Amino acid sequence: MNWAVTKNNRVLPLKNIPVLDMVQLRDGIIGKCSRGMRPILFFADRREKSPMLYAALADDDNSRILVSSADISTIKKYNAITPAVPSFHLFERELHEETGIVPEGHPWLKQVRYSWNRFNRAETMENYPFYTMEGEEMHEVAVGPIHAGVIEPGHFRFMCQGEDVYHLEIQLGYQHRGMEDLFVKWKKKSAIHLAESIAGDTVIGHASAYAAAVETLCGTEISRRAQSIRAIALELERLAIHIGDMGAIANDVAYLIGNAVFGATRTIAINTLLAICGSRFGRSLVREGGVLYDISAPLAREIKTNLKKIHDDVTLMGETMFNSAGVLSRLDHTGTVDTDTAKSIGLVGPAARASGVPLDVRTDHPFGIYRYFPVHKLVLYSGDVFARTYVRYMEVKQSIDFIFEQIDNLPADKPLIMETGRQQPACLSISMTEGWRGEIVHAAVTGRSGKIERYKVKDPSFNNWYGLALAVRDNGISDFPLCNKSFNLSYSGHDL
Fold it and tell me: What pLDDT was estimated at residue 48?
């Protein structure tokens, strides 16, 4: 077989991963993707004398992950995958940036992050080849990289005719933290702090993915109680950010009562995380081997009281807002990404589900307590700002119901945290988690001693930034803030 078959949070010995030539790997990827599979990882491991390229495809219908590899020590170029599988476009650009290997025929071969150890240091932000359009009525509008408020750096270049946007190009890569290298260099006990800092609004999501990757390598199955508490925190993170996003979208259409109510309600949600672990963003809760904080009976009652208040306020405000003709006139048919486009470019998370693409790791590749408490996928099909907002509204209420179910059935088994022990040598561990933005993927490759020697991170923003660029086309430039908020993507999660 040319592909090894594994599952989410399973150990895959490196010796069991087939090593193909690039032609075989490329043809295999195209063939598998034509039959409904999709890329989740495509990265180089450059630490050996014979550097390897790993490809992982998700078979969502069967909850499987297919993995293969190629020896790229003598590869300088190959025929690009992107023309046949458009969702590979950023993966191949990233590979080119890191190794210099050229995917010939790639339609948009530009730098992705400008990492400190990129192959070609002559490629800089200053000489980035922006797409241009010519015509008497054409003009460009440049926004960023410095923005008002506290958002992080990113540059947006609009090609416009009058107020209408023909094309948006998004240039990222302004942050150079070297996160993946730090996972290798830092001590194991400290690396969880890196995971919590990949994207500051997704602490639980990334920490859970990292912890599960390590636990898998160590053969550690954490207690059901710890699994449940992690899931409660993950759903609190989801509903808190979704509520905040609904408030931001309300603000952008001048629906100020919605902005005020959702903003106040978000505070209740993040203060509930504060009550659990001492951090409104969930820091210090998730650790390798379990969790550091328990949910006592009094705390469980407090959480349920808070959730009842959140549910009532979100329902009342949501029903009012989504019945407002003024609000709907701004949300409907704005920033549309249709189903075929969303699937083609590889959208994930609420943005994908709002465009009719039913992807959710909690269901497709269940992990932790979700293996015992299934989550129903919530899908809409219009693919516009309305759909991306309303999916959030539905998911907030779903998360509340899920947390109630967990608290009412909180397992009694202990310990909350346990020692993880030694990591298995020469293995690959892939850990997938459904964060509030969508699919988070962490992969760890261990060497002969069991130490992690290559760590790969994929935040859902990596998949979805291009979706924002396409959503803005044929809209007024004044609609960009609304489209942007409806995706709410991470700069730091992308730049790593």
Answer: 63
